Amino acid sequence: MSAMTQIDLAQSNALFNNYGPRALRMVRGEGVFLYDDAGKQYLDFTAGIAVCNLGHADKGLAEVIAKQAGTLLHTSNLFLIPGQVALAQKLADLAGLAEDAKVMFVNSGTEANEAALKLVRKYHASVAGKARTKVLSLPNAFHGRTMGALSLTPKAAYHEGFTPLVPDCVTPETLADVLTAIDEDVAACIVEVVQGEAGVYPLATDYLQALANRLHEVGALLIVDEVQTGVGRTGRFFAYEQVGIQPDVVTLAKGLGNGVPVGAVIARESVAAAFSPGSHGSTFGGNPLAMAAGNYVVDTVTAKGFLDGVCQVSVALEQVLRRYFTNVSGRGMMWGFDVADAKTFAKQAVERGLLVTKCSPTRIRIVPPLILREEHVERFESIVQKLA
Ligand SMILES: Cc1ncc(COP(=O)(O)O)c(C=O)c1O
């Protein structure tokens, strides 16, 4: 470790405390493994919180990033960025929306949802011809931390000290209440197909279809938040493909850049039309570096056989989880399960070289890189069988 690194760490009290104390210091990654500053290896079932789908230090991605950095990092959206045009076309084709799709780039999940919230209001005001401002979200949803996204995230603890939130962002008490709340005043409803932060709970297919139909009936829009589920995490490029619903707006981030911050909003053409020049923007959004990473990631994840491999290893992973844990739920490479004490479980996992995340005092979430192989699942089993 360099002297500089030692000084930085010793002075880390200059940081805000919004993440609490963090004991581990990761300094290197390779594939599905992370290494701390003492050289200890960890099987990384956090993947940067569902971000590093291609694992750590992917050689192809590193080359693409280095090449782009040596050519052109940033121009702003004053200029047309060729990488945006290419990536937008790929995402629009993959999305399979009811009309041709258009894409706009941002830098994170919360920004994508923030933009989606603005877009659906603007759509009703300027395209659909009647202003509607009410946007619904679901119980236990998580959509991000900026004011709009936070207003669509019903967890009371996240709201504390930040009120008043954005008006007309409403989360009914139950899933059934969401259906009955949908009327001609509703602009849109935002959903996660698998509620990740809540504990990795897939929503029932018939519920999602009923929700989509009801929104359609009243001319309200369906926003599917694929920030965590998208880019192959559930075994298909978009999780909504697995449940037979067609969104009007889709938000993406996390896995899209494999660690380079990239977010995107995909919308069907007539909805995207609500944004005219000046409606919305981002200095960094879709910059050449982000687009180099995004294009590489999408090409890799959509290459023949990649997602079949994810589905195959996912079956082995699910079998192991069901052998040792209760209340196992999830899809593809995102799973949750119950434990007696999540804090103790995560701590003991770290001691044995496994990284997981807690999503409640009794629930663990795992979101390993999509490049996970059966040998890694075996290693995972050898660790958790001592913890379960
Ligand atoms: C479903 C979902 N939406 C939005 C977000 C917010 O994304 P970000 O942290 O990139 O702002 C997250 C983050 O966990 C998420 O899981």
Automatic annotation (TrEMBL):
Cofactor: pyridoxal 5'-phosphate
Keywords: Amino-acid biosynthesis, Aminotransferase, Pyridoxal phosphate, Transferase
GO biological process: L-arginine biosynthetic process
Pathway annotation: Amino-acid biosynthesis
Molecular-function GO terms, alphabetical: identical protein binding; pyridoxal phosphate binding; transaminase activity
Keyword check for DNA repair: no
InterPro entries, alphabetized: AcOrn/SuccOrn_fam, Aminotrans_3, Aminotrans_3_PPA_site, Class-III_PLP-dep_AT, PyrdxlP-dep_Trfase, PyrdxlP-dep_Trfase_major, PyrdxlP-dep_Trfase_small
Record NCBIfam families: argD, PRK01278.1
Family of this protein: Belongs to the class-III pyridoxal-phosphate-dependent aminotransferase family.
PANTHER family membership: ACETYLORNITHINE AMINOTRANSFERASE, MITOCHONDRIAL, AMINOTRANSFERASE CLASS III
Name of the protein described by the UniProt record: Acetylornithine/succinylornithine family transaminase
Lineage start: Bacteria, Bacillati, Bacillota, Bacilli, Bacillales
